[in-house]
């Protein structure tokens, strides 16, 4: 497929401007501590059964305590919930937005319980991760399945009967709204840097085994990032009127040292660039949709200190946050998902998904075996929003 580097066209608004069959939107996120007393129980929730070394946990607890024990992620999700509500209202769409997290309050189960109590029976979920891998796709879907089972049991439903039907918006790394908001943010960062710097895209590292298993749903996790990076760098270059040289680096690795994770680490990469004569960089965190702890600590605290040590001029580009093109794009994605759900149940034609870059749109419904933790290894947990929840 020829890469589409133009940032338009967007999803046509008119024929798909309907949220039916959905009666609620779940903003589905990771969660984070609200104060020092939350830090350890939160970290235990995140790392249960994950084999993260104790030293790494103590180190990450310090990152949170460095910021008073509170993660910025919760305030950012509240802001996104408000922005989505406002954009839906602006378009005259009636869809209440509830917010629930995998690892901390408000928990997914409670958000779904509130939607159910308000009469919702068919929910569309929007995950706050733009890329597909176990961490950004299946793990959310496993937690969603468990939350639905727990809520069903709480409501006294017969075994195996779920209280709500939940569909998920497709993984949106190559949706025009996400890409355009990143192009804006990186262009602004170059204006602030005031120099011709190299562009260093950054995302969360994952184990090599998780990267390999991410191939089941299409392009792998790192390939998805390379696609976005190429599109963003080309569009920024067009705006600046020059060629922008770029790389992809990783942050926040956490497993034991013996376990290979995606590299290079952003700090190592800055050292390499400085040694090769680079004097200025823009650091663009395309792997994250808001400035949560990985951005606040691993980039703004650690990577910017590394750059200063090396005498590199550095500026960190904004995450997409609540930028207008991103929020508009998320609502377009909800409408696209709704149109696909209606098409599946009737003869209504399904809209062609809007994408930019060289990769096709991800599936709405995950393929069997999509985004396992490791090839051939299953967590044993069923996963929602899949063609086969038990595969
Ligand atoms: C790909 C990816 C994303 C991006 C997609 C997305 O956005 O969802 C992401 C997001 C996040 N990760 C977060 C926090 C943590 N992640 C950890 C551990 C891990 N992350 C992993 C991957 C990812 N993580 C992996 C493979 C592990 C190893 C254990 C495991 O296989 O699960 C640990 C344990 C300690 C440590 O080892 O670092 C913590 C505390 C927070 C909240 C931040 C805040 O509070 O602001 C957010 C948004
Ligand atoms: Fe993480």
From TrEMBL:
GO CC terms in record: cytoplasm
Superkingdom of source: Bacteria
A Pfam family: Ferrochelatase
Subcellular location per the Swiss-Prot or TrEMBL entry: Cytoplasm
Gene3D superfamilies, sorted: 3.40.50.1400
Binding, Fe(2+): 204, 294
GO molecular function: ferrochelatase activity; metal ion binding
The protein's Enzyme Commission number: 4.99.1.9
Keyword Metal-binding in annotation: yes
Signal peptide residues on this chain, from the entry's feature table: none
Binding-site positions, Fe-coproporphyrin III: 71, 140
Reaction catalysis annotation: Fe-coproporphyrin III + 2 H(+) = coproporphyrin III + Fe(2+)
Pathway the protein acts in: Porphyrin-containing compound metabolism; protoheme biosynthesis
EC top class, as a word: lyase
One Gene Ontology biological process: heme biosynthetic process
UniProtKB keywords: Cytoplasm, Heme biosynthesis, Iron, Lyase, Metal-binding, Porphyrin biosynthesis
Family stated for the protein in its record: Belongs to the ferrochelatase family.
Known role: Involved in coproporphyrin-dependent heme b biosynthesis. Catalyzes the insertion of ferrous iron into coproporphyrin III to form Fe-coproporphyrin III.
Protein name: Coproporphyrin III ferrochelatase
Organism (species): Cellulomonas chitinilytica
